[in-house]
Design goal:
single chain, about 325 residues, mainly alpha, Farnesyl Diphosphate Synthase, two-stranded antiparallel sheet, 2 strands, about 70% helix, about 0% strand
Length: about 325
């Protein structure tokens, strides 16, 4: 099952329910990624923004604003803001990871250069803050500014933990809560805030976004070892980049001395041979770490659904609940 499957899938049902809003968001994104003086900016941005991304994060902002009864114009600004922040982090990530492919296409840093990717990412961050300010809501600005700082913090933590086979699950969760879940949580939190809600609704939707983001990233890391071209993942990229993701951390924790020496060679020293990826996956299978990782993703998907239970009924509420299951279903 992929996020491109039939219209009955929750992601597509969400897009259908929010079609008019999404059209407005896409229009605003194209308008604000323009640059009168630097044509490379829209070239680089369009390559990524229009590459078939699912707009999941901005849809969460649109959906949570609608669920809270918002009828003004600024959920569009906030959804575009969230997409710009996400796109900026992708541009920077591809430089840091020296990636050559994203969403099945060459990365911007490969087609242009690292300098362009970094500077255009900076431009999009700046644009995102302009959009936030236009809402005139300081609380929204605070939420998204904090999320931007937390994302950067998570990325730096991941960088410092890279290739360190003593990295714990606790550090891993700090990393993914920063680099992924923070934006999911903020995307869901600014919806009720712009709608003038306070207290329980804001906390519940932020908690939903946090848990959904954690589940989403765990699944993404799992797909690096058991995905397919249909999931948009290249098998083994994280392994080749020596990333300490949850399946690897669990396998190292369960390793005997011989296996630990293998992980040290491949991850700590970066001495990888052609057959090492297959051996790594075999070790994960031996210790059940892929199944254990999927169980973690399921746990966080359940946490996301649980966060919604006390919210008032709304046509979009069951779609958000189904979306939690759907994120994990990518591993089927």
């Amino acid at each position: 099952m992929s996020l491109d499957d039939a219209v009955s899938k929750p992601h597509d049902r969400l897009a259908e329910a929010l079609a008019d809003d999404l059209t407005a968001v896409n229009h605003l994104i194209r308008q604000r990624m323009a640059s009168e003086h630097a044509p490379r900016i829209p070239e680089v941005t369009a390559h990524l923004v229009e590459a078939g991304g699912k707009r999941l994060r901005p849809m969460l902002t649109l959906a949570t604003a609608r669920m809270c009864g918002y009828n003004g114009p600024y959920h569009i600004h906030l959804a575009a803001t969230v997409e710009f922040i996400h796109t900026a982090t992708l541009l920077h990530d591809d430089v840091v990871d020296d990636s050559a492919q994203r969403r099945g296409r060459p990365t911007a840093n490969l087609l242009w250069d690292n300098q362009s990717s970094v500077l255009v990412g900076d431009y999009l961050f700046s644009r995102s803050f302009q959009l936030m300010v236009e809402t005139g809501n300081l609380r929204v600005l605070d939420i998204l500014a904090n999320a931007s700082a937390t994302i950067a913090e998570g990325e730096v933590l991941q960088l410092t933990a890279a290739q360190d086979i003593t990295t714990s699950e606790d550090i891993y969760f700090k990393v993914i809560r920063g680099k992924t879940a923070a934006l999911f949580a903020a995307a869901c939190e600014v919806g009720p805030v712009i709608a003038g809600k306070d207290g329980q609704a804001v906390r519940a939707l932020a908690a939903y976004g946090d848990a959904l983001g954690i589940s989403f990233q765990i699944v993404d890391d799992l797909l690096d070892y058991q995905g397919s071209t249909a999931t948009g993942k290249n098998i083994g990229d994280d392994f080749r980049e020596r990333k300490l993701t949850l399946p690897v951390i669990k396998a190292i924790a369960a390793a005997d001395d011989t296996e630990r020496a293998f992980w040290h060679k491949c991850i700590a020293k970066g001495q990888q041979e052609a057959e090492d990826l297959s051996h790594a996956i075999a070790l994960m299978a031996r210790h059940g770490t892929l199944e254990a990782t999927r169980a973690e993703a399921l746990y966080w998907a359940e946490q996301a659904k649980s966060a919604l239970k006390d919210l008032p009924d709304h046509p979009l509420k069951p779609v958000l609940k189904d979306l939690s299951d759907y994120v994990v279903a990518r591993t089927n």
